[in-house]
Amino acid sequence: MKIALVAPPVLPVPPVRYGGIERIVGVLAEGLQVRGHEVTLFAPGDSRVSCDLVATVPEGLWTEGFHPDPGPFYTRTTEMVLDAATRFDVVHGHLDQYGFDLADLCPVPALSTIHGRTDIDPIAGCIEGHPDVPLVAISNSQRTFAPGANWIATVYHGLPFEDVAGGAGEGDYLCFVGRLSADKGVAEAVELARRAGRPLKVAAKAIDPGEQHMYETVIAPAEREGLVEYMGELDERERDELFGNALATIMLSKWPEPFGLVAIESLAAGTPVIAARSGALPEIVLDGTDGFVVDDVDAGAASVERAARLDRARIRARALERFSAARMIDDYVSVYESLMSERRSQRSVKNAM
Q1: What is the pTM of this model?
Q2: Domains in the chain, CATH or no CATH each
Q3: pLDDT at 67
């Protein structure tokens, strides 16, 4: 197949550090290319991929510094894809609310994977306003907030975990990886560690004002207390090592996580996850096997000692089976083929009339 993948104009593919969407697009681009498909990636010019690259901006907007209105750059991305669309068998967008016009106007089969929240605007309103756009969800939870949308599949994320070593949790600490934002449950993770009597390592960026405020009001005081070690933003190798040596990963999100890449990265290292009962986390973390799904900080703290007794080899084996890059690529190839077959059928019916 000739496949166009469309990434946001904000970060290179793959990202140097933070960037969930870009990581998935990068894995998909490389995996499809290896399988013999002709892949063209529309993405920032500082992307590093082996497939054909069409630079939508010279480099990711966040590389240059945050632009207050990325909308015009997304519009230009859409225009560039539409100008070249007839070269492809299928166009696969990853632009969230900015991708609906692309799918509506595209002359060839097009689909959009939704990576963000579907329970609030702007994505919720876009779904309602574009009921016919073929959408792929990244979890069943994500679909429940928009039951009337044209969901054509649910495809869980997958990553190339072959080189990730299973860890024994020898560091005897808890870890938190993600954004320093209130909705990610940072303060709750710190309090859980305090109640469990375990040190907490925090790997996250603190760049925008909200993140800086969270660092100054929650993380810094816990550092002075000797409870928290703040590590900043880590690359993939450093994160893998952090996960592998951790006793458990804490994910007490206050919002419905559409997926949770941190969870599958932790599980692939054999490290259990203590997760909030929200969003997709209960789909990823099998309670009592992969970790524990809890309703509050008290329950999370009480789960720490039980998490230490879980079978880490089993956790890792399940993660590699359920969340491999190969499985994700298989799923998307099936979606592409189904969408193309449907388009051919529609044309046959139209020609017969």
Answers
A1: 0.92
A2: 2-159+324-352 (3.40.50.2000), 173-322 (3.40.50.2000)
A3: 64
